[in-house]
Each structure stands twice: as C-alpha cells, then as structure tokens.
C-alpha cells in the first residue's frame, strides 16, 4: 500500500525521513489544508479578540477534555492542559512503518497537548514569579506522564508568542509534543556534549555556565541556582539560554525547591526582553534528554529563548549558518539594563 | 585580546563556533545595528519604489564596482554582479582565529556579491527561459572565480524573493557568498550521500531522481536533462528540488548545452509556483560540493526552492523537525496543473 492511500484512508499524521540526511519531517494531514489555502491573498491573520478566544473558555469552544487542571483557592482554574484540537501527532498504537520505493516513513503517532493559563492578556513577560513557576510545574507533571507512554521517545515543550513566531492564537499557551523520534537538533547537542566529555571529562554546559558567570560579559541575570546568558555563538540577535548551574541531564527531575529559582531567572529575562525590544514575538523551548530508555549522563538541560528580531532568509534557512547583526555581548548589556532589581 | 575588542577595532565580521554542535554563526558587525534598532515599532518595511531603487541604477546609488557585467546587443546592461555594500563577510587575508575562554571564533573573511538583473519588475517567475539561463551563466562565472580565492572553501548561491523570505530590496537579485567554512546543512547532505553510497554503491540523488521520474507522483516538470519534484520528505509546503538527471557533484561544471535545459525546468517551476500560490515569497539555493580542495564524488548538485507558505514556529525552528500541512503528492499535482505547455 502506498503511503498516500494509507494516510488518506486513516487521516493520521506521517513522519517521513529524508533519505539523505536521516532527518524527519511531519506531514500533518490532521491539520490539512487544500492547495488553494496557500494562495497569498487568502492568508490573513486570524482574528483574536478576547470575545472569540478559543482558550478563554475551553469548555464552550469544543476543546478536548483536560488532562491537567490547576485551581486557585477560590476554585477558579488558573492553568489547564488539554489535547490540541488540531494535533500534529495523533494518539495511537505503536507507529507502523510506511515504505514507498527508496523512501521510509512511519505513522505520526504521538501526543500533542496545549498548556493554557487563564488570563488572555497576561503573557509570560508580565507574569509574577509564582505564576511562571506553576507553568514549570505543569510542564513537569505532563512530562512525567507522557514519558511513560509506549510510543513516546522524545518530548518537546515549547511556547510561541506573537504572529511572526508562529503563534496563531494570541491567548498565552505552551505546547507539549510527545513523539517517537528524537529531534535532529537535539541529537547534534547530545552528540556534541558526549564528544566534549570524552575529550575533557567535563560537561560542556557546566564549562559554559561557569565561564559565563565568571566572565560576566554575556550574563542577563543569575541567582544561586540558574543563569541566563546570551550564548557566545548566538544564532539570533538577543537569543538567551537559561540553564541550571548544577549539572542535570533531565528537566523532569527538577525539584520543587528549584522551580521558584528557575521562575525568577526566567521572569527577569522575559520581562527584560519585553521591555528592551517592545514586546517582540519569540519562541522558547526546553532542551532536555530524550525519554527513550537510554541514559544521557553528559547532557545538561536548558531553555533556549529566541526573540524574533529579523526574518531568516535564504542563506540562514538553507545553510544553517545564521547571521546575527548584533554582538551577543552588546545584546546582553542591553537586556541587563532593563532588569528590575 | 578578546574577540569583542578585536572585532570592534577592525569592524569585520566574525564566525563563531557553537561549542556543543560545532555549527557556525556569523556576527556581521559590518551590518551592525544599535540595540534600539531591534525595537518592534521601529522595524518597518523599507520603501522599495522604483524611483528610489538602489539596484536600478547601481552607478548612481554608490554600489561598488562591477565584477561582472553582461550587455545586450544595444550595449545596455542586462545583468551585473558587484560586491554587497553591507557584506556579511568581508574581503581580507587568511582568517585569524579569535579565542575567548572555552570558545573558538575566527574572522569572517570572505566574499559577498550581488547578482542583479536589469528590470525592476521582471522577477524570475516572469522571465523568459534565456534570461534565466543568463543568471545561471553568471552564477557559474562568479563561482569559477571565487573558488580559487585562498580564503574560500564553500560558496553559497541563493536568491530571496519577497519580504517574508528576507528580501529587503524588491529589485530581483541573487547573492553569492564565498566563505571559509562548509555549511552544516550541506555537511549533513555530504555525509548522507557518502554513507548511502558506501551501503548501496549508488548515488542517493540518482536513485531519487530516477524513482521520481518513473513513479510520477511528485514530479512538477522534467525534460531530458533535469527534473523538478516535490521531495518525499518536504520540509515546507510546495518545496521543490531541481536536479540534473545525470550524476554531477559540481554545479560549476555545468555545460553551455545543459544550461538552457536547466533554465527550462526552472522557468516552468517558478512560474507554476507564482501562478499556483499568488506570487509567494520564496528562497532558492544551489546545493553543490564545497571547493575546499577535496573531492566529493558521491554528491549530486541540485537547487532547493522553498516557498514561504507558513511561519516556522517553535517546534520547527528549534527541533529541526518541520511540520508540513500538505502532502508533497498533492502539492506537486497542484503545481503541475499550472504548467504551461
């Protein structure tokens, strides 16, 4: 059976492998569009008024049932997690392989959830430290559940803010995807960290965070437990990484004592980006070890924040060499100025 | 001397290496902006009227001296190539290395040129076959010159069209960068092609183009010498690859007999994308072997065309797993319908 007829009949996503590089792409037919929908004139930004917001009242807008809900003392919900209505990956049994000629693909089995905080206007940069800590709680709680699912080998936790960063819904929300394959970008980091350890007997991220804390050239904010800095080889202007100072390969093992410390560093960083750059669009993403049953002792989890300050053009998109027009040292200095102490 | 003070004093670009992945980024201080320039409200699309176009009359807008010029029978110029006024890489001697703590960088020595065709409104999708063939001529001619420069190990030839694809100037133009390091993305392709050859004794791109031509599921257009198809694992909706049917690792060795054939396939593909998708923004890019003195017998040059049909969000940008919302088979079918025969 061809991949085309098989996926058409089942209408599930498909993970297709690039025959040359081994990278994966997702053909998400659950979010399928007709070819005509790609015509430029028809692509308009979606209305995102609070009145028609699908996340303000998830019960009334036909969202799926919550898998997690946090409530305040007055019993109102403050945060909820539910399956994405238009999933890029669909729940199902063990992925079946789909071959066509020289190519390989498999069904896009997995989980795709949405983490929604209550207030439509209260974006992360404006939140209190403890509101942010609650989001990190939710990430951890869902992670610990999804990592035990049979089909999940890797979990991607990310947050898009702003239209230019791909957020089609204004209401603040993060996404969690549990998928059968490890991301190619994380793979490069895992291999790099392992290689660095073999040569030097040190964790490359520990070396980095210690050096940054000591050099104080690119630090945005730090406390006893976490450090935020513009990486030496920033891929985008004002890119910031947040990482634990103590070696730790697995985000899901973060302690309740450490979460407010992480939230503090994150809150200062996000509000500084908001104030310095005028509420830019951004993406952030947790880089943590896969949950494929193997150990990754030399990896060191961290969060990468990418403000959307320029359009990536041909050279960047296609070579993978990115051109940044500001020195990370100058970006960090500018961000530091906006930190409220 | 620190990287910061060194580059500040010389005001040249810097290639910084990611200590974990080994990837390179460019800090292009020649295109430097002040931190304030990144504030959202100040980022407005540039005016690009024909009256103020910097490429319509390059002599009058202070562009650098041509390195190549083609003229029509009436002595008017039809195409010219000159150094980019705001280069991401600056001409210079052998790159010097710049170290800081655990990090490594080198000066961003290289070449950055612009290929401009005369007519402000005549974008590639609207050009005649022979106008496109002339562009391929210019790519080849500049490539053959730059590949012999001491500091150049890799040449990137690309074209951005439309604001969303990073083209800040409307007037049709391509860019050529000759740089000291090989692009990480091409490296993956080189390694993948080599690995495939070791296992099967076949070129993976020959296998692909033969299979596509025979299966006729994803072909957009083909003639005797070249084939255009939507790749099985398309990273973006309506992505198209154009490749020679005969094995060839090096773009710069294309013959004068083959160039009109390439131009025919390219012209049909680009006009079909233009008609099907309503003049979308796009990037295209020549993937060809490095010019670092090594042989790459198992690589197979090709052009990748990426229409900008959606915004890449957190998941795609940061995992490297891209989500496409249309099957490549459906995209190809849609493009085929618009081919004028």
Would you give an account of this structure?
- 2 copies of one chain form a homodimer.
- Chain A has 2 domains: 6-31 and 45-179, HIT family, subunit A; 184-337, HIT family, subunit A.
- Helix content of chain A is 26%, strand content 23%.
- Chain A has helices at 3-10, 129-146, 184-200, 204-215, 259-277, 314-319, 328-337, and strands at residues 14-17, 24-27, 68-71, 77-83, 97-100, 103-107, 111-117, 154-161, 173-179, 219-222, 226-229, 240-244, 282-287, 302-307, 322-324.
- A 10-stranded antiparallel β-sheet of chain A has the order 3-4-7-9-8-13-14-12-11-10, with helices on both faces. In chain A, strands 2-1-6-5 form a 4-stranded antiparallel β-sheet, with helices on one face.
- In chain A, strand 10 and strand 11 form a beta hairpin.
- Chain A starts with a helix and ends with a helix.
- The model of chain A is unreliable at 1-10 and 41-47 (pLDDT under 50).
- Strand 2 (24-27) of chain A pairs parallel with strand 15 of chain B, so a sheet runs across the interface.
């Amino acid at each position: 059976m061809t991949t085309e007829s098989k996926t058409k009949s089942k209408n599930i996503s498909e993970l297709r492998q690039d025959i040359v590089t081994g990278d994966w792409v997702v053909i998400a037919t659950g979010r399928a569009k007709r070819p005509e929908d790609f015509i430029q004139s028809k692509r308009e930004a979606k209305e995102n008024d609070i009145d028609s917001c699908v996340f303000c009242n998830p019960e009334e807008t036909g969202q799926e049932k919550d898998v997690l809900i946090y409530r305040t003392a007055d019993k109102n919900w403050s945060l909820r997690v539910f399956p994405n209505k238009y999933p890029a990956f669909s729940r199902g049994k063990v992925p079946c392989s789909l071959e066509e000629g020289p190519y390989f693909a498999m069904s896009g089995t997995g989980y795709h959830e949405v983490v929604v905080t209550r207030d439509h206007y209260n974006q992360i940069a404006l939140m209190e430290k403890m509101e942010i800590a609650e989001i990190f709680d939710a990430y951890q709680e869902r992670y610990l559940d999804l990592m035990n699912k049979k089909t999940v080998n890797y979990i991607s936790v990310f947050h898009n803010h702003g239209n230019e960063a791909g957020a089609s819904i204004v209401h603040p929300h993060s996404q969690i995807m549990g998928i059968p394959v490890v991301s190619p970008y994380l793979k490069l980091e895992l291999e790099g960290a392992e290689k660095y350890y073999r040569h030097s007997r040190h964790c490359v991220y520990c070396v980095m965070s210690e050096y940054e804390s000591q050099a104080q050239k690119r630090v945005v904010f730090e406390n006893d437990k976490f450090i935020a800095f513009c990486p030496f080889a920033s891929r985008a202007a004002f890119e910031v990484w947040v990482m634990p100072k103590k070696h730790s390969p697995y985000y899901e093992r973060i302690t309740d004592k450490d979460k407010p410390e992480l939230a503090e560093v994150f809150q200062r960083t996000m509000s500084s980006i908001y104030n310095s750059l005028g509420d830019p669009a951004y993406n952030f993403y947790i880089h943590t070890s896969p949950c494929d049953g193997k150990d990754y002792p030399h990896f060191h989890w961290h969060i990468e924040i990418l403000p959307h300050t320029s359009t990536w053009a041909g050279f960047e998109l296609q070579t993978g060499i990115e051109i940044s027009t500001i020195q990370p040292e100058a970006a960090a200095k500018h961000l530091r100025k906006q930190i409220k102490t």
